[in-house]
Amino acid sequence: xxxxxxxxxxxxxxxxxxxxxxxxxxxxxxxxxxxxxxxxxxxxxxxxxxxxxxxxxxxxxxxxxxxxxxxxxxxxxxxxxxxxxxxxxxxxxxxxxxxxxxxxxxxxxxxxxxxxxxxxxxxxxxxxxxxxxxxxxxxxxxxxxxxxxxxxxxxxxxxxxxxxxxxxxxxxxxxxxxxxxxxxxxxxxxxxxxxxxxxxxxxxxxxxxxxxxxxxxxxxxxxxxxxxxxxxxxxxxxxxxxxxxxxxxxxxxxxxxxxxxxxxxxxxxxxxxxxxxxxxxxxxxxxxxxxxxxxxxxxxxxxxxxxxxxxxxxxxxxxxxxxx
Length: 324
Known about the structure:
With 324 residues, the chain is an alpha/beta fold. It has 2 domains: 3-117, Rossmann fold; 120-276 and 298-320, Dihydrodipicolinate Reductase, domain 2, CATH 3.30.360.
């Protein structure tokens, strides 16, 4: 499959490039609206670069484009891809806020093209087990969930030459908009399409005194459905991080940490298994497979827009102190 990367200055570009090479679909050429940053990033990856994305796409004729935009340039980076009706995967959050993300989703819908969103945590093993138990009638009623992603200090974004992540006018927020996006998406999944209300929220920048938050916590609830607690932080003291997904139901209690899935059933039995850690190789492989087979993405731009809109309401409550 012929692939290109638009927005190669993004720190995830290396992950996708490595995954695509391993899967036999190496990146042909790259582009970025920031020509200087893009050219430097492409050189580090030993990939060709063309500042003119339109010309690049016309010449390379890719079957799939990986769009990795700076948050304030999501639509601008995506526009030449949509103009040519080329299937794509786009990095979350698709904009600085829900309005921008919604505009991307609507434009993709109008283009009637395969439009995957990079919600890598949809590939966690907990979701397969969750669906299997539901289909088997063993899950019961989902009562609550908890989704936590806490990674290392925010200075790493400067080290990765993407210091714009720490500027809210460009990124649209800190740990919540970035890491918390996955947890918010998970909350929407277990809400099952029901309206979700934000019941409580707090964001802090206690240690690093940055204009973006280093930690965020929120409580959201689905109408007639589960309550979910969320945590997202740049507050892990070292490299790496702490991540845990938990779903509590009357028939089973599911918990996945890095590399381990546990399911405690109502009869007291415990099912514990080693599972793959979700990542961009698995995400990339899934997207390639679905596109080849003519199947829709596991997560699409509509899913991404809904998560971005809910994050806006969490920020609103945290800043204004009222239910949003």
